[in-house]
Amino acid sequence: MIIQKTENSRISSFDPENYSFGDHFTDHMIICEYENGAWGEAKLMPYGPLPFSPSNMAFNYGQACFEGMKAYKDSSDEVYLFRVNKNFERINKSAKRLAMPEIPEEVFVGGLKALMDIDRAWIPTGEGKSLYIRPLIFATEEGLKARVSNKYMFAIVAAPATSYYSAPVSVKISDYYSRAASGGVGFAKAAGNYAASFYPTQLANDEGYEQIIWTDDSTHEYFEESGTMNVFVRIGNTIYTPPTSEKILDGVTRDSFITLAKHKGIDVRVEPIAVKDVLAAQKDGSLKEIWGVGTAVVTTAFKSYGYQGENFELPVLSEEESFALSLKKALVDIQTNAAEDPFGWREKVEKDVLQTV
Amino acid sequence: MIIQKTENSRISSFDPENYSFGDHFTDHMIICEYENGAWGEAKLMPYGPLPFSPSNMAFNYGQACFEGMKAYKDSSDEVYLFRVNKNFERINKSAKRLAMPEIPEEVFVGGLKALMDIDRAWIPTGEGKSLYIRPLIFATEEGLKARVSNKYMFAIVAAPATSYYSAPVSVKISDYYSRAASGGVGFAKAAGNYAASFYPTQLANDEGYEQIIWTDDSTHEYFEESGTMNVFVRIGNTIYTPPTSEKILDGVTRDSFITLAKHKGIDVRVEPIAVKDVLAAQKDGSLKEIWGVGTAVVTTAFKSYGYQGENFELPVLSEEESFALSLKKALVDIQTNAAEDPFGWREKVEKDVLQTV
């Protein structure tokens, strides 16, 4: 790995008690370039702009995918990553579906650890705080012909994230717009999937909803995802979440919730969730919770949902009663080394990683 | 408009008798930046890279859309554009669906004419040659939160294109992969639509097909597009093309073909094309032609197609017999000022546009 440390650290401009997510990027970033059929040597360098022309193929044909990860500091200032291998495997699934080259493990994992080590001062401590990490791959060849790029960049950038807390939101069950086609790229963390979701979300916002529960594009009868998260429904004391598919992202937080719920003895069913079954459970009073899960906020609980012009309220549960909130706490405790980790998910970032890369 | 002419023209490195499409970009480009809710002043400047960090939201969330256009020189070296308003309207339809700001007409059309005027020496002459023009809009804010960008760039770049000729190709009728969801962004020239098509196309290439005829994602029973083009089918002496929809691009070449065919007295039906009807016409001998149309190649004729493991040959027609080839010739003659333009499609680029902008 080529190491080029910054000579102008911006850490003094960062107040860990007073910042917003995305206001600050850490001092460094990892980049690695692909050309002539091979990845070059990874480079740790100061975070900042690089030269790309408007004919860059990522801007034109959208070959770009990413991961979302977090690093956490425990009460002893030790730094931990979480289920790194899941994100490494998924970025390569996304890359494959977008006809992009897969990134080698030593570049992804080695780059991640080196960046976390050198920028460890940027990882905030305290309730719910973390460093959000963004690995991504994007096309970099200049060209106007709609074809696969011959050049790519892998990069890792990072920014301090604020508290996990997010107030319960109201969501709209989509009966027109959709985020994924059968035989499409919905399972990939493809850049274009996000752009496609913004306009329908704005329309839902205009109707007073904060997010959309995406349904299948053919019938709109089955739940797929919620916002940019996987979705869970609790009916009685059973948790349901749709099986992953070519249309549904294989979320790391989703998988962790399923595992934690089973570990706690909760009945978890990974099966299609029909809108009509949710409405029936609403009617008979057995619908207890609906929530979304993802790396950024871990869990967003829903307070109400709209479907075809009608609004439905969800019960207000205490943190003890709520499966969503108790599972979230269990997960965060593992992530931040506040609890045992029976699953081997937590990974400590050793100091002075750079001396060994 | 801010004008910054190059001091290092690269035109002497461009041999108009010997080049490949995309090898060369013209000396200049147009850029215009959007922030604080408004587009700034357009700028004509030397073509080249600009600074963007890997946290650029276009790389991460794919807010990016484009247009494809061409400029042509006639035998007197006058320069013409084609149906500029159609592309202007469409880029804004794409922008709206991707929750991006619409570009003002004076920036799009004014920028286009200024660029064509200053770089007119780059427009090659001769059979089928043209200058390919790429207007695009993409997000430019740096951020790691999946939301709409607050900053954008509009740009126009251009590259000399080679002859229109493309040999007839074999295509695969998709029975698994798809390019567009109902309620999705298929009608937009969204960057992500192209990235999503590359991997299925590679798989089809591996089976010996050059392109895919995309079918609806729910049933795969109806034609949608072919490769990156709109698709036409001729049965007997009637031409069919699917109606535009939220899933099908409203192609300028498609619209021009429909208009030209009607003008020639050909029976044109804009209606869904069922795979089973194509197969039935193949069986009874009435299937004459299938072809794709788009700005880049105008027309690609198909020589054969595959469906569920079976291959079907299409008749070999002369240029006189072929509707695809005679309509193509009629269109190119209008574009290059080799024929009358009864539709008012052609637009001459006046000299010294820059003095008036």
TrEMBL record, chains A, B:
Pathway involvement of the protein, from the record: Amino-acid biosynthesis; L-leucine biosynthesis; L-leucine from 3-methyl-2-oxobutanoate: step 4/4; Amino-acid biosynthesis; L-isoleucine biosynthesis; L-isoleucine from 2-oxobutanoate: step 4/4; Amino-acid biosynthesis; L-valine biosynthesis; L-valine from pyruvate: step 4/4
GO annotation, biological process: isoleucine biosynthetic process; L-leucine biosynthetic process; L-valine biosynthetic process
GO molecular function: branched-chain-amino-acid transaminase activity
Alphabetic keyword roster: Amino-acid biosynthesis, Aminotransferase, Branched-chain amino acid biosynthesis, Pyridoxal phosphate, Transferase
Gene3D superfamilies xrefs: 3.30.470.10, D-amino Acid Aminotransferase, subunit A, domain 2
Cofactor(s) essential for the protein: pyridoxal 5'-phosphate
Annotated EC: 2.6.1.42
InterPro entries: Aminotrans_IV (IPR001544), Aminotrans_IV_CS (IPR018300), Aminotransferase-like (IPR036038), B_amino_transII (IPR005786), BCAT-like_C (IPR043132), BCAT-like_N (IPR043131), BCAT_family (IPR033939)
SUPFAM superfamilies reported in the protein's UniProt record: D-aminoacid aminotransferase-like PLP-dependent enzymes (SSF56752)
Record bears the keyword Transferase: yes
Catalytic activity: L-leucine + 2-oxoglutarate = 4-methyl-2-oxopentanoate + L-glutamate; L-valine + 2-oxoglutarate = 3-methyl-2-oxobutanoate + L-glutamate; L-isoleucine + 2-oxoglutarate = (S)-3-methyl-2-oxopentanoate + L-glutamate
Protein family according to the UniProt entry: Belongs to the class-IV pyridoxal-phosphate-dependent aminotransferase family.
Physiological role: Acts on leucine, isoleucine and valine.
Record's protein name: Branched-chain-amino-acid aminotransferase
Organism (species): Marnyiella aurantia
